[in-house]
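Structure ticket #2291
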Amino acid sequence: MKSSPDSALPDGTGAASISRLIRVRGRVQGVYYRASAQVRARELGVRGYARNLPDGSVELLAHGTLESVTLFTQWLWSGSPASRVTAVEAVPHELGAGQPPVDFTTG
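Resolution: structure written out below.
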């Protein structure tokens, strides 16, 4: 069963959760951006992934509570000390059938 992009999904703790697909542009590759995002995501309880795209941007999937995903998305503007973020674009994302992510990974 699919949910609408902004509908709440159970996350196993009873709290409602959401998903966002995020694209970050700027100087975000080769500057420890994905690893820094992974650390921050885990601190906030956000699950998903961060991966480099061929155009030099980073794509992230953020899944968690509205509060944790919002805080994580705001943090993406800071990123790692060597990064220079010029844009953060987040859109609601519909998870396919199956389980939500169980961790935050980089790849």
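Closing remark: Confidence is low (pLDDT under 50) at residues 1-11.
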